[in-house]
Design a protein that fits this description.
single chain, alpha+beta, Alpha-Beta Plaits, 31% strand
Amino acid sequence: MIYYLLYYGVESFKFGQKDFEELLAQARDRNEGLGITGKLIYCEGTFIQILEGEQRHVKEVYQSIENDPRLIASKIVAEGLVEQRYFKDWSMDFDEVPLATINELERCEHPDVSAYVANAPAVKLLKLLSAK
């Protein structure tokens, strides 16, 4: 069984290209060493991420995320055990997703991403993470 943790977080400042590159390099290096896979998406100041691996390692990584000054808030949406990884080939896959894409997937108009993630059930966020 694989432990997963799905959360969202809000940036503390507007990320630029260099900030994304630095964040992803750090995450990929750390995750590879801990056997963690997952995906991170960014939409208008909000990160949605799934981490998967050994429970103690995933929780350790999430603890460091909670303490990261690049985020002003984070919230766990879902966590638990699954039979297999969703993102087995990625130490950290990444996509930037516009709100228009979320609205298209949901077939409705969300005024902003924070309203969407605050009310979206975990299965909808997993669907968004899986969309290409």
